[in-house]
Sequence to fold (310 residues):
Amino acid sequence: LKKFGMQFISTPFQSAIRPANTGMNAKKLPDGSYTTNTNHPDWLKLADHDNFGLFPAEYSSGLISKFPILNLNVISDLKWKDFDPSFDPAAFKDARGLPYRRDLELFDKNFMDVTIVIGATPVHVIILHTVPAFNFGNPNGLNELRNAAQLRFLKYYLTGVVSKTDQPIVKSLNPGEAFIAMGDWNVDRDNSELEGAVVLKELGALFQYWIKDRVITYESQNYSPDRFSSQLDYILLSPHFDIVDSGVFRNENRIEKGCDGEPNDQKEGWKVVSYPSGEKTCYALVPDEMVLSKTASDHFAIFAEVTLKP
Fold:
């Protein structure tokens, strides 16, 4: 991040990043290195089953800011049982069939509050990447509950009000402080069956999302017209901001080319892609930027242009 920020010579950018908990308990290979291969035959032995990941600090988050960074507060060691004493992670088992630690961290990555200064106004930029959405809906799975607890912590941190049996173990923001909270929160706010989604709805009633209505920010890594998609990524703003522009960088233009063999079409700025349809292989032309975006991530970049209110 620091090297990337230094590319902006006319306006030097500052950066903030701290290692995530992800992979901190991963095991090393015999040569002393960590594998990065998710298909490694011994992944079950090597992986960090508490906070996921195959190597330390995998999936860390960071911030690049053109505004001065005043303070950095990182929460990574907070134990789940200290935030919610009523919950026992050891009642659940990991992928190996072993109970989770009772002193399991609340955050499988971390919770970052970067205070920047815009003009004379301190603004808290809060970055949170919640637990993976894998195994949501499984009554024996821990991820859905951990996601909800992490989002309840976010709500507490922004409002100072605890939910359920949660405890104010960490100092929250002061009333009236400006903030921008963002990240991959790994739950669709329209899925009312998930507690995390209910928390996101509550946050939307208190504050403002960068886009009012539901939008697609995630999709499966294939080119099928009916591939799975969802909203998992968010920007939430305090009332101090006016939203000038906002959106998702997602180009859905495509030209279907049928299922009778690979087409020979050449169209500048477009690529031929394929996808299975029953027993057939079908083809489509899609923009280069769509291929680049899907190669980079299964999430789409989101943005908001905002101004501070007078």
